[in-house]
Amino acid sequence: MTATEDPATARTRDRTEDSTAESAHERAAQRTDSTARAGSTAQTRTLLILGASGDLTGRLLLPGLAQLLATGRHPGLSVVGAGHEDWSAEQWSQRVHEATGKASEGADTAGRQTLERVRAESTYHQADVTAPGVLSGLIASLEGPVAVYFALPPRITVLACERLAEDGLAPGTRLVMEKPFGTGGESAAELNALLRRLVPEQQVFRVDHFLGKGTVLNILGLRFANRILEPVWNRDHIEKVEIVFDEDLALEGRAGYYDGAGALRDMIQSHLLHILALLAIDVPAALHERDLRDAITTALRSARVPEPFSASTRRARYTAGAIGERTVPDYAAEPGVDPARGTETLAEITVEVESWRWAGVPFVLRSGKGLGSRRKEAIVTFRPVPHLPHGFRGTDSPTRLRIGFGPDTLELDVDVNGPGDVLTLNRVTLDADLNAPDLLPYGEVLEGVLDGDPLLSVRGDTAEDCWRIVEPVLQAWAADEVPLEDYAAGSTGPAAWATSQRERDEG
Ligand code: BG6
């Protein structure tokens, strides 16, 4: 306790610190329990990163990994990079150094030792992993169990896996697949079939880094550890659920990937459907990969976008504009963009979840780029009260729960008696900043890979279901059944969209 701190504050702080330490132990124990039941308890000994010289490895993978290693929880891990580029040992070492150096700053002794060892020992191999025998030879030369991270374009990943299927793999090998998982339902099913020839499903880790975001995982604690929410978490009390992920980033030089994907595939198919699933699932018995992933699959299997798509979906593309001080060119004029493709940079779909719990409740999913402000949240709007006592004045606004995904916040908008005239309703917001997680999302997902626990990975059947939900919409858009609207970069989106209007009103 500090000199100025009152005893109650000190108690709260101690409880928080104790529970943080406890929860780290509990989590480790729970992972062991979970992986034991999944049938694969061995810690990964070597992480082999394919595409080691690529952008994803430098920007997301190594920083997430370094932060994880800084916890000291994986002291024996070796990290090996492989790539098509002719990189020298120094170039690779420099890349590892950049990521680990920063993580060392906050690490304890065990964490620092792990980072130093990884930095000193990590090697880079120039390799064409699509050539016969190359990848399997490399894996066989490493200490197992090996986790192979395919940070590669999807087409190369498939070719590399086909080679592995010819050569076979050591039993405990784990395969980590980056998104997009396939280009549609059919190719996702083909890729799943190929992976089944290589390893059991529990050893396949399909990455959705949103499942590693602390705030996304907080949905589970919020829903299932609080008695007051679950009884009202259904169609009787909830009017609609919105999941919004508006980014102020524009194309950022990613035309090569993004122009072939668009907002519906890039964000809604890959990430937001999982947030929907966590908001919609029934209570699992345990946070075991099977219970949780079964529940997610059940929720997504009952989800669909109702026809006509002209009513349930919208798409738009940004034109030139300014975001703060930044001037943003017209998307269609960006280098590498083919305007004839009609790629959307903003997508919105209304999903129905066909179950007793959710029938009739719209789940509106919206995500886009080049917008004037960042807005990343799920908003649960409750139905009006059945009877408001006569005599109240003012507006009875709906109760709203907002879960922010960055900044990580929780807000509850409620009506109370107003100041001055006590019978006039007044809106107040109860808010809390949520704890920042220890790990970056990629670190969180990688920890599951190292522990052999696929809890935070997308299961094969779910990956196919996400495509099943969006594919009819993609077809309707390709057939121009829904107009491609436009919005100026830096705006809140097309003016007529209800979600854009709300952003203007509340932003
Ligand atoms: C990626 C998308 O998967 O997620 C990007 O490809 C998007 O387009 C990103 O910007 C958003 O994730 P985060 O973690 O930056 O919020």
Automatic annotation (TrEMBL):
Sequence ranges of Basic and acidic residues compositional bias: 11-30
Residue span(s) of domain Glucose-6-phosphate dehydrogenase NAD-binding: 49-218
Keyword terms: Carbohydrate metabolism, Glucose metabolism, NADP, Oxidoreductase
Keyword NADP on entry: yes
Keyword Zinc in annotation: no
Active site: H271
Residue sites binding NADP(+) per the record: D128, V129, K179
E.C. no: 1.1.1.49
Limits of the Glucose-6-phosphate dehydrogenase C-terminal domain: 222-498
Comp. bias regions, Polar residues: 31-41
Positions contributing to substrate binding: H209, K213, E247, D266, K369
Superkingdom classification of source: Bacteria
Pathway(s) this gene product operates in, as recorded in its UniProt entry: Carbohydrate degradation; pentose phosphate pathway; D-ribulose 5-phosphate from D-glucose 6-phosphate (oxidative stage): step 1/3
Gene3D superfamilies according to UniProt: Dihydrodipicolinate Reductase, domain 2 (3.30.360.10), NAD(P)-binding Rossmann-like Domain (3.40.50.720)
Enzyme class: oxidoreductase
SUPFAM superfamilies: Glyceraldehyde-3-phosphate dehydrogenase-like, C-terminal domain (SSF55347), NAD(P)-binding Rossmann-fold domains (SSF51735)
Region (Disordered): 1-41, 488-507
Pfam families named in the record: G6PD_C, G6PD_N
A single GO molecular function term of this UniProt record: glucose-6-phosphate dehydrogenase activity
Catalysed reaction, written as an equation: D-glucose 6-phosphate + NADP(+) = 6-phospho-D-glucono-1,5-lactone + NADPH + H(+)
PANTHER family recorded: GLUCOSE-6-PHOSPHATE 1-DEHYDROGENASE, GLUCOSE-6-PHOSPHATE 1-DEHYDROGENASE G6PD
Function: Catalyzes the oxidation of glucose 6-phosphate to 6-phosphogluconolactone.
NCBIfam families referenced in this protein's UniProt entry, alphabetically: PRK12853.1-3
Similarity-based family: Belongs to the glucose-6-phosphate dehydrogenase family.
Name of the protein described by the UniProt record: Glucose-6-phosphate 1-dehydrogenase
Species this chain originates from: Sinomonas halotolerans
